[in-house]
Design a protein that fits this description.
9 helices
């Protein structure tokens, strides 16, 4: 079977791997689509993502959906072969139902598909056949195409981040700074949470068109115009760059809140903390997601318009071209790998 791997900076390959066999409690999923995430782009370009360096060949990908192809012995809870599923990419270190001060996604020792955060690395989902535990499957509802369902993981990230803001979102005027795939899905999550008015800002026109298609009330092209100061109740920083966070601090009103949804570079950053303090702004961090994958699947099933976030689909053999496209925000929102034939097509 084929898989997309990274070996070193700029060394992205499509390689052949042995076909896996499911063990008891596991299923084999034929992956149909895999969305290319910003972390995948960092691994492909730099062989690192934040603090995590690629020290051995790493199969990329964690935004994956497919069809159950085989079931391991003694797995009575498994859905039957042919069932369309999304896959939760995380395996927490604590068992489901455990209690504590944080969600399971923040417990130490967990794993995530396609991540160099563990040794050995946790191999990812850009493979034709993926072996996973049955507890990580989410059966897709009838009528939700796999091509739209591939957005479930990043939408869950957006839903989790917006949930960190609590009741601040309902009735709020919100700015989303950075309208790439995660920013566009944050627009959808904010709309679902009851925001009164949502403005999306970006340097490119295509992301702004996608943001409008999924629920933004207004857009600002930052290459030709600026943002008002102290205007917004809530700002969602979704670009993951320091100038965007600085702009968010200026744009939020006194007593407002900022959600840092984009992943900032590792290390110290020049942030005007005094302005946060002086305006009594609440700054919320967010990390991946916890239990929101089911809610993401349900929202994707209810909102066909979210399909607008997927702008490009490439065959797995064209992975290098797909990654180049995904890295060009002027031309693409969410770029997806077609790993296997789509039974919905």
């Amino acid at each position: 079977m084929r898989a997309v791997t990274v070996h070193a900076p700029g060394d992205l390959r499509v390689e052949e791997f042995p076909t896996p066999e499911p063990s008891p409690g596991q299923v084999l999923v034929r992956i149909v689509y895999g969305g290319i995430c910003g972390s995948d782009l960092h691994y492909a370009k730099d062989a690192r993502n934040g603090n995590y360096r690629v020290l051995e060949p790493l199969v990329l990908g964690h935004e994956v959906v497919g069809v159950v192809a085989d079931v391991g012995a003694d797995t009575p809870a498994a859905p039957p072969v042919g069932t369309r599923v999304a896959i939760h990419p995380a395996t927490p270190s604590a068992p489901a139902g455990a209690t504590g001060p944080t969600g399971l996604h923040l417990q130490r020792g967990g794993t995530y598909l396609g991540s160099a955060s563990t040794q050995p690395h946790t191999q990812g989902g850009f493979v034709e056949l993926l072996r996973v535990g049955v507890d990580r499957l989410r059966v897709l509802p009838d009528g939700l195409p796999l091509r739209r369902a591939v957005l479930a993981e990043p939408l869950a990230v957006a839903l989790h981040g917006v949930s960190r803001l609590g009741d601040r979102v309902r009735g709020a005027r919100v700015l989303v700074s950075g309208a790439g795939p995660i920013g566009a899905l944050a627009v959808a999550a904010l709309r679902h949470a009851g925001a009164q008015h949502i403005t999306a800002a970006d340097l490119q026109e295509l992301p702004l068109r996608v943001a409008s298609a999924v629920g933004a009330d207004a857009t600002v092209n930052l290459s030709t115009g600026g943002l008002p100061e102290a205007e917004f109740d809530v700002v969602v920083e979704a670009a993951g760059v320091v100038p965007s966070l600085v702009a968010a601090i200026r744009a939020v009103r006194p007593g407002g809140a900022i959600l840092q949804l984009g992943i900032l570079p590792a290390g110290p950053q020049p942030i005007p903390v005094s302005e946060l303090v002086g305006k009594e702004v609440a700054l919320f961090g967010t990390q991946r997601f916890d239990v929101e994958l089911d809610a993401a699947v349900a929202l994707l099933a209810a909102e066909p318009g979210l399909a607008a976030v997927v702008t490009d689909v490439y065959e797995i053999g064209d992975a290098a071209a797909a990654f180049a496209r995904a890295a060009d925000s002027a031309q693409s929102s969410k770029t997806v790998l077609a790993v296997s034939p789509d039974p919905d097509a």
